């Protein structure tokens, strides 16, 4: 291995690590707020990428039908609760977000010539279709079990993962897809060449991390999420809705996942189940941070990306094994360093 190969592998590792960092931050966020170890995080990656690929190919993405179906299910649940309790004040909002919004999004996809739109508009439309699935899935699968144990929530998360993978196969098929690159530029930096898409991935990841930091530090909703993550009971006593916090955290998770898929789709072929493996690597990075520390999770993501890149050179057949083996010493160290385990009440 010479210097040029080392620099190329480091470039690939940093690019992959940037995506894993976003997914790790999303996993830490949703676990801190809702106690859900969100295994289906990678499915948003696949849905975002495949939705954009379908739009660019001039096809109606299956996400439209998934959004319509999920919205209809949420509406049925809310109407049943309203009929049982007699509380109908929120019905207009429920109907607007879960019926009118998906219908408007479907109409836009059906009437617009999406292929002729600028890339930014195509990306925005893909996000419009995927991001609302986050709060809807939370409402259907996790909100009714908000007070369940972490193990029960994990089992539900695994069930949601299998459901989303099956639906992605149904709506998009088994064929893989790639999207158009954001930039075709190439830059020669000494011994290596950096393409524009790599710079887009790293730059967009850093920008999103900064935006998340400002959101948590400067906005009332961000501070509400932080309060809920620190102490759910205290947040409720201060008037913060934990239901709102859960929906908002799942919306951010869907946004991060879909945007990650859109960024990585020009670099690699995305299949209906590709997101699971990408999400697992983000999960390894989140474990490095103890599912609690954002900086450690980001550092763990960079470590995972570099380890994967250099492993593909030295032992490509075992690169996945090497990456996932990283979790063993981390868990061993944390089990030895932790003196007491607090049981859920």
Task: Please write out the topology.
Blueprint: H1 3-34, H2 41-56, H3 63-85, H4 91-111, H5 119-130, H6 133-142, H7 150-172, E1 186-189, E2 192-195, H8 196-218, H9 220-230, H10 232-237, H11 242-264, H12 274-288, H13 294-314, H14 319-325, H15 327-337
Question: What key attributes describe this structure?
Answer:
two-stranded antiparallel sheet, single chain, mainly alpha, 2 strands, globular, 345 residues
Provide a brief overview of the structure.
The chain has helices spanning 3-34, 41-56, 63-85, 91-111, 119-130, 133-142, 150-172, 196-218, 220-230, 232-237, 242-264, 274-288, 294-314, 319-325, 327-337; strands at residues 186-189, 192-195. The protein is mainly α and 345 residues long.
Output the radius of gyration. Answer: 21 Å
> Largest sheet, described in full?
2 strands, antiparallel
Major sheet: order of its strands?
Answer: 1-2
Low-confidence spans: 341-345
Shape descriptor reads globular
């Amino acid at each position: 291995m010479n210097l040029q190969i080392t620099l190329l592998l480091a470039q690939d590792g940093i690019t992959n690590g940037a995506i894993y960092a976003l997914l790790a931050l999303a996993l830490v966020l949703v676990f801190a707020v809702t106690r859900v170890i969100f295994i289906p995080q990678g499915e948003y990656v696949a849905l975002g990428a495949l939705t954009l690929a379908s739009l660019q190919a001039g096809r109606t993405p299956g996400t439209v039908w998934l959004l319509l179906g999920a919205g209809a299910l949420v509406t049925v649940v809310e109407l049943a609760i309203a009929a049982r309790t007699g509380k109908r004040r929120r019905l207009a909002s429920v109907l607007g977000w879960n019926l009118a919004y998906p219908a408007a999004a479907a109409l836009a996809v059906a009437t617009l010539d999406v292929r002729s739109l600028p890339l930014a508009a195509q990306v925005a439309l893909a996000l419009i279709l995927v991001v609302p699935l986050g709060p809807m899935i939370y409402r259907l699968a996790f909100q009714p079990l908000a007070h369940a144990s972490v193990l029960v929530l994990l089992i539900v998360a695994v069930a949601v993962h299998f459901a989303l993978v099956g639906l992605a196969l149904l709506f998009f098929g088994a064929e893989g897809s790639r999207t158009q690159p954001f930039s075709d530029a190439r830059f020669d930096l000494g011994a290596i060449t950096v393409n524009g898409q790599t710079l887009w991935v790293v730059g967009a990841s850093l920008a999103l991390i900064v935006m998340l930091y400002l959101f948590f530090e400067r906005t009332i909703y961000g501070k509400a999420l932080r309060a809920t993550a620190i102490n759910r009971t205290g947040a409720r006593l201060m008037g913060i809705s934990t239901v709102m916090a859960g929906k908002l955290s799942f919306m951010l998770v869907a946004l991060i996942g879909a945007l990650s898929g859109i960024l990585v789709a020009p670099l690699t072929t995305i299949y209906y189940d590709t997101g699971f493996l990408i999400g697992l690597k983000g999960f390894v990075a989140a474990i490095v941070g103890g599912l609690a520390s954002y900086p450690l999770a980001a550092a763990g993501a960079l470590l995972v990306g570099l380890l994967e890149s250099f492993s593909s050179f030295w032992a490509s057949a075992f690169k996945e094994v090497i990456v996932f083996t990283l979790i063993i010493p981390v868990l061993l160290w944390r089990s030895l360093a932790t003196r007491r385990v607090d049981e859920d009440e």
